[in-house]
What does this fold into?
Amino acid sequence: MTKVNGTAKVEYDPNFTNAVINATGPKADNRMREVMTALIRHVHDFAREVNLTTDEYMAGVSLLNWAGQMSTDRRNEGQLVTDVIGLESLVDEITYKQAAASSSSATPSAILGPFWRHDAPIRKNGESTVLKVPNDAKVSYMYGRLTDAVSGEPLANALVDVWQASTNGLYEQQDEEQPDCNLRGKFYTDEEGNYGFYCLRPTPYPVPSDGPAGKLLDLLDRHHYRPGHVHLIIMKDGYKSITTQIFDRETPYLDNDSVFAVKDGLTVDFTERNDDPKAGWELKYDIAMAPMGSDGAGNVPIATPGAA
Amino acid sequence: MTKVNGTAKVEYDPNFTNAVINATGPKADNRMREVMTALIRHVHDFAREVNLTTDEYMAGVSLLNWAGQMSTDRRNEGQLVTDVIGLESLVDEITYKQAAASSSSATPSAILGPFWRHDAPIRKNGESTVLKVPNDAKVSYMYGRLTDAVSGEPLANALVDVWQASTNGLYEQQDEEQPDCNLRGKFYTDEEGNYGFYCLRPTPYPVPSDGPAGKLLDLLDRHHYRPGHVHLIIMKDGYKSITTQIFDRETPYLDNDSVFAVKDGLTVDFTERNDDPKAGWELKYDIAMAPMGSDGAGNVPIATPGAA
It folds into this structure.
């Protein structure tokens, strides 16, 4: 033990981390080995850097266990905890930039978030996702055209999977007052690549405060709010799938999203819509999809059903 | 994007991690800020270093959620997952070395592990923790003396809380065939600082393979075994508490414990015991406790009931 500026500087076993890393056996998958080696090194460096105590470690374990215990097929609290520290948004950036290396003109991506459902209904173009209109809603018509990011040709029969929270800040699976699959739907583009549906102009909402993600935000003296946004997954055979969110340029919290999902190129402008008794606002949103490259780059991975 | 040796080297937003760190508000506790700042930096560096994909991230989240879902008041699978990557053992080293700075002669510590119970019964010195003797058991008498690590004086009325697995590799709460609180007990030292009880000479066992910790070991091509050991917590007012494990010097897996808990000074020698019809083996184990320093160093934190 040495003293530095009067503070005890404790030295730890310099061989410990390598011993843990080297326990990995010869038959481990190479990528598993690579990922876990880096994870072990960083987690150990973190613990030594802050002199993490047993009590603090146990508090962290309890928080993660609590997240698992709150998670169901309709809610992923573990994911939300990592969202609060920006991990999902960072991984999204990494995945997007790695996979999009063959084309830089495709629509940017954003995190899936914990509220996607794999079983949302297919609806027809022109239909509404708004099964119950809140009093304070700004009903909007969202529409646009899907094209090949390289050739500019329209893409027919592409899937646009959309979901959003209601004006009370809740997704339908969080809210007994909303009909099942309210503010959700899957749409397919027509022969000219066009899609369109009614939705709500999105409003800010807080991430749930009844679990460890909310607790962590409180401990960090941070607000819980996300800027108003609409979630989208776009898929088409032969093209890289897109998982994204679009943000209303006029929404609060655009500069300090509690889960750090706002990125350049994802901000959109809702405008007033005339002569439509069903909607006072509209959003034109065209989407460019990158064709699968010949360089072996695959799909941008999107959610599996387990991520609901 | 730049190319390095033919491999695409993608550059990520250099401001992202600081933006997440700087979201922490002014009222956050200073230690919370310090710990989370380091955690965020290391987790982000890890993700960028390995170019972590969304699929890999989601697999990690699912594994952590699974751990929480398996955890009960009798089993802590989240803790076990972190044990597999050596985190609990490292945090134990950090905590022990930080708190023991005022005395270097105290008994070394080791991890609590996930099988401690706060409600183990108090038993009298000389009694047995072995409520059901397995056919292949080596019943042993463990005894010793507790002393002040500085003065060498005996410590009366100190608590020795002990637990161990049976020869089938299971702790009593994992095994319907074992009586409640088998192989567990709390003992108090007598006026001369002595304690003693019957136990089993410990045998190796695998960490549970039905959950994410076992899955992680398999993915890392590692064995599941722990060397034979006895768990101890020793507490006495005015002294730093000790949470430790002692390892039979002749046990297999002493050099490659699946949770990395073996440390210098924790290995012990069981010897043959003569003229005791109840036990063929014995272990003399004296324990030195460090008095609370005048430097403000507190107890080595031990388990809370939530860590059962």
Observations:
- Chain B has two domains: 2-52, 77-307.
